[in-house]
Specification:
This protein is an alpha+beta fold and 203 residues long. The protein has helices spanning 12-15, 57-78, 109-115, 127-137, 163-171, 185-199, and strands at 19-22, 26-30, 41-45, 83-88, 99-102, 121-124, 141-145, 151-155.
Length: 203
């Protein structure tokens, strides 16, 4: 029997160089594969859980507070309200819940609706609703908030790995950055290192 590959996000040593801020329950890290020229971060729960929708109610309350703080910090430093998204068990390259924040003024909803015609899509008022709906449906999802600041969910679309990363890279005219594994290492290290130094002062 082949054992499962260890989870990168459950091993602090794998991400410690990228940590911007850490609490008792969460990491905020500068991600590998910076699509923009810096400012792209991940919020990662320390507890191993498959997606944000599967988290406990009290964890969601903390996530809401953390996301508000991150949105403020990025908008202050990069003068752009970030796109926020999660591959809710669809297209995850690491099978551990994490929310992406990308400083880019993009509208994703129309693109996602075009890519997955006929798939059910919901606009929701908060992350609490995402949790409630996921607990009821138990279906994979894509979740995002774009420059309109609406939270949206698309249920069980046939999305490829890293789909939301890929379309954001395309919309920013840098499709070569869609796959984080193919980023030029020296440039990427420069960008995520700079992201850490620019955002640490807010925490």
């Amino acid at each position: 029997m082949v054992s499962e590959k260890p989870c990168v996000f459950c091993d602090r040593t794998k991400i410690e160089k990228q940590i911007i801020h850490e609490t008792e329950r969460y990491y905020l890290i500068a991600t590998l594969g910076q699509i923009t020229d810096g400012g792209y971060v991940l919020l990662i729960p320390k507890r191993h859980v498959s997606c944000i929708g599967a988290m406990e109610e009290w964890e969601i309350r903390e996530i809401i507070a953390e996301t508000s703080r991150i949105n403020f910090c990025i908008s202050q430093e990069y003068h752009c309200y970030p796109v926020m998204f999660e591959h809710g068990i669809i297209g995850q390259t690491i099978q551990h819940a994490h929310i992406h924040f990308v400083p880019a003024p993009l509208r994703l909803t129309e693109r996602i609706r075009t890519d997955f015609p006929g798939k059910e899509m919901d606009i929701v008022p908060s992350l609490d609703w995402l949790r409630s709906m996921y607990l009821e449906r138990q279906e994979p999802y894509l979740f995002w908030k774009d420059s309109r600041r609406e939270l949206a969910i698309c249920w069980n679309p046939p999305a490829p790995p890293a789909y939301l990363r890929i379309i954001i890279a395309e919309m920013l005219d840098c499709p070569e950055r869609g796959d984080w594994r193919k980023m030029e290492p020296k440039l990427d290290k420069l960008l995520w290192s700079e992201t850490i130094s620019r955002l640490k002062k807010y925490f």
